């Protein structure tokens, strides 16, 4: 039978949608049927025993026995289920159970009426024990109780708050069982003492914590490594960590005494790692790999306690300002790191808080180093995902902490860059992946600044954060791609491919805006490239960028007189307009060019090709000196000219020395081993240029030390002056008050005795009126 055109069109355009729609409708119907069955099953499970059994269950049979509900069932019905197994009534024991806490007695009738979902023959304590196996069901029962009978719920809240606090302490309930199993081996007297200890600690639940209780916990943890005491001290530590929060009232303990607060913090931070090490010993290999018994029952039991304690420490790190407490917290956190590695989300939060402590310039150097040690330990013992998270947080903290650079915080920023660069070498594979991504971001910012010719597009590149990032990557590749280290290991570092992109981005940033105002930024970047070239033996052409500075209009035109102080090039990337065309700025730029040119050539002072490398620069420098010393020249800066002329002289001397040495060699230029071994036994400071540069470095170090001492003295005098000014203001205020009192005394002295009595009576009357 031929298929019609309309049928073909329907099959092509609409058949697929119709089939899909029918399937969706069928799924919706199936889901609704399943929901109905679930509701029926739930209602049947929650129904009372008498409702499920019906009348037949209570009606006696002919033989005098009650029908148990199985007699009328077929075999298929029996295996299909849908019935409730009758519960056997438990005989009530006459002997009281030891080790259990006594509950407030509740009459059976009230319990049966209020706990309507529970069977009639189960008392309140039994329902509580059953709820320990099903936390969700327990929460639902409590929520239903609050709605059905709020008076009874209020009674429980006042007399048995621990029942309602089940959600908070349910995860820690198994620790009590562990403690009990440990105490079974102790003698009866000691076990009795532990029971008293537990009673006292739990009697203080929800109350003000005392120092005596904390000391009992401390003694128990020190002597027996008690997990129960550790649980209590961790709960108290949680309350101490959230002491100033709005929700601090919901925690089990409250702390208002500073001594108790200090005792809780010190005890927790010092003893919790020791107790954990006692029960769950960590085995660490020489390579840094650790082994924690995570599959043991104790570890599974302690998991909620570890999470709670780590979150409390994370919160404490974000709110602490005391240096000693911060260091103690970081040391304790470093000890428990092996136990929390499996909690990825918690570890990421810890990494963020520790990295913020490390990057905060307000913290002292010791505190920041303690935070760095925690991050380094995480990198050593963690897996690749955690390592990547650590490196990302460290880089973000570095960029955030380098937003503003002054003479006061430059040392802290350099500390961050030096310590962070060490982390990238612990796992070079992960270090290369993260480093390449961050360097690529810097390259994208540079490309955007070049392509978008807007007024402020350059500001995304010409800022301290960008410059410090480039300098940081230069430190990373210089630290881990060192040529000597690679020669010893026999293989190149995985981070060596990062050298090329770092150098290319840095050179591009250097030439983005080649104006005199950004000469300080150029000098900062040249120092970064010199570090790379020195460590990795990579030739980077830096001499043209420095000669370009000498040939600029800023250095050729006559300077203006100025009384400005010398510009600090180590903490400056942009000179203000007040410095342009001034003698101070010109002298500073000339000194920087001379220093950087000498530092560049000192890298190749023993190289066999040094004469050919230095010849073009020597020619250009000679031309510049000749042009500056002409009488017709408008700028005759004798200071800079003498510095450049001295440098040219040393370069020529070193070239002649190299030519003399290489005239005695017996290998051809294509002999790579001979070229690389040329003058290898000679120290760099024994060369003509090396001796000159060593002397220049020594004089600069002495000058920098003198300036640093002068700055510290000036800061000290300023602080003393401010303190004296405050004292003087307070003294003047005190003297003014004394003068007013003396004036009142003089007025009283001018009166007769009767007038004085009258004045005193009036004052007393006024005071009585005020009291009324």
Automatic annotation (TrEMBL):
Amino acid composition bias (Basic and acidic residues), ranges on this chain: 8-18, 32-51, 698-730
Keyword Nucleus annotated: yes
Main location: nucleus
Bias (Basic residues) ranges: 19-31, 89-103
SUPFAM superfamilies hit by this protein: ARM repeat
Listed GO biological process terms: ribosomal large subunit biogenesis
Location(s) in or outside the cell: Nucleus
InterPro entries, per database record: ARM-type_fold, Noc2
Region annotation Disordered: where it falls in the sequence: 1-150, 178-208, 697-772
Low complexity bias spans: 117-129
Key words of the record: Nucleus
Nucleus in keyword set: yes
One family name in Pfam for this protein: Noc2
Domain of life the protein comes from: Eukaryota
Compositionally biased region (Acidic residues): 107-116, 733-772
GO CC terms of this entry: Noc1p-Noc2p complex; Noc2p-Noc3p complex; nucleolus; nucleoplasm
Protein family (similarity comment): Belongs to the NOC2 family.
Protein name from the UniProt record: Nucleolar Complex 2 protein
């Amino acid at each position: 039978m031929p298929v019609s055109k309309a049928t073909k069109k329907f099959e092509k355009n609409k058949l697929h949608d119709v089939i899909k729609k029918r399937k969706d409708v069928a799924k919706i119907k199936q889901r609704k049927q399943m929901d109905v069955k679930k509701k029926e099953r739930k209602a049947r499970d929650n129904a009372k025993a008498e409702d499920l059994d019906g009348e037949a269950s209570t009606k006696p049979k002919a033989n005098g026995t009650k029908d148990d509900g199985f007699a009328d069932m077929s075999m298929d019905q029996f295996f299909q289920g849908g019935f409730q197994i009758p519960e056997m009534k438990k005989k009530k024991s006459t002997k009281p159970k030891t080790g259990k806490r006594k509950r407030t007695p509740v009459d059976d009738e009230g319990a049966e009426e209020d706990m309507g979902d529970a069977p009639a023959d189960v008392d309140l304590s039994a329902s509580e024990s059953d709820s320990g196996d099903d936390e969700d069901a327990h929460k639902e029962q409590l929520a239903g109780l609050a709605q059905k009978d709020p008076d009874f719920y209020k009674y429980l809240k006042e007399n048995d708050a621990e029942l309602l606090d089940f959600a908070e302490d349910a995860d820690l309930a198994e620790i009590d069982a562990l403690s009990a199993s440990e105490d079974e081996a102790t003698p009866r007297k000691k076990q009795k003492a532990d029971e008293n200890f537990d009673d006292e600690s739990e009697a203080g639940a929800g109350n003000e914590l005392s120092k005596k209780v904390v000391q009992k916990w401390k003694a128990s943890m020190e002597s027996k490594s008690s997990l129960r005491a550790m649980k209590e001290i961790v709960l108290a530590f949680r309350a101490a960590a959230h002491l100033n929060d709005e929700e601090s009232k919901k925690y089990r303990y409250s702390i208002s005494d500073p001594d108790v607060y200090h005792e809780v913090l010190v005890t927790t931070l010092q003893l919790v790692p020791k107790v954990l090490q006692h029960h769950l010993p960590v085995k660490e290999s020489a390579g840094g790999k650790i082994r924690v018994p995570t599959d043991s029952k104790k570890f599974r039991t302690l998991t909620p306690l570890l999470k709670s304690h780590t979150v409390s420490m994370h919160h404490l790190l974000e709110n602490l300002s005391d240096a000693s407490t911060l260091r103690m917290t970081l040391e304790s956190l470093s000890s428990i790191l092996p136990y929390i590695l499996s909690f990825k989300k918690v570890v990421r939060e810890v990494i963020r808080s520790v990295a913020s402590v490390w990057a905060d310039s307000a913290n002292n150097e010791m505190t920041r180093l303690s935070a760095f040690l925690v991050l380094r330990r995480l990198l050593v013992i963690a897996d690749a995902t955690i390592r990547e998270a650590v490196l990302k947080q460290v880089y973000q903290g570095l960029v955030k902490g380098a937003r503003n650079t002054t003479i006061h915080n430059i040392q802290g920023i350099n500390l961050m860059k030096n310590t962070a660069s060490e982390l990238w070498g612990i796992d070079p594979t992960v270090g290369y992946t993260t480093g390449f991504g961050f360097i690529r971001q810097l390259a994208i910012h540079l490309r955007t600044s070049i392509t978008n010719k807007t007024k402020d597009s350059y500001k995304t590149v010409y800022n301290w954060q960008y410059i410090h990032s480039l300098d940081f990557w230069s430190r990373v590749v210089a630290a881990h791609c060192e040529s000597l280290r690679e020669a010893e290991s026999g293989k190149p570092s995985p981070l060596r491919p990062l050298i090329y992109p770092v150098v290319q981005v840095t050179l591009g940033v250097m030439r983005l805006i080649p104006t005199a105002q950004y000469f300080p930024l150029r000098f900062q970047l040249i120092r970064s490239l010199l570090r790379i070239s020195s460590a990795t033996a990579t030739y980077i052409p830096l001499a043209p960028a420095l000669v370009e500075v000498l040939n600029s209009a800023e250095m050729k035109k006559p300077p203006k007189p100025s009384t400005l102080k010398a510009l600090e090039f180590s903490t400056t990337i942009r000179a203000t307009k007040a410095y342009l065309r001034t003698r101070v700025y010109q002298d500073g730029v000339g000194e920087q060019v001379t220093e950087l040119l000498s530092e560049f050539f000192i890298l190749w002072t023993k190289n066999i090709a040094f004469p050919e490398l230095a010849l073009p620069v020597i020619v250009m420098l000679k031309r510049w000196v000749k042009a500056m010393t002409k009488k017709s020249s408008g700028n005759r800066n004798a200071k800079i000219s003498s510095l450049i002329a001295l440098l040219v002289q040393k370069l020529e001397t070193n070239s002649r020395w190299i030519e003399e040495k290489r005239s005695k060699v017996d290998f051809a230029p294509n002999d790579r081993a001979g070229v690389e071994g040329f003058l290898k036994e000679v120290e760099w400071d024994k060369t003509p240029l090396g001796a000159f540069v060593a002397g220049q470095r020594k004089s600069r170090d002495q000058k920098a030390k003198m300036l640093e001492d002068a700055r510290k003295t000036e800061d000290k005098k300023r602080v003393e002056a401010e303190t004296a000014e405050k004292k003087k203001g307070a003294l003047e205020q005190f003297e003014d008050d004394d003068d007013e009192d003396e004036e009142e005394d003089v007025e009283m002295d001018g009166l007769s005795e009767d007038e004085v009595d009258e004045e005193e009576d009036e004052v007393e009357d006024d005071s009585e009126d005020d009291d009324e």
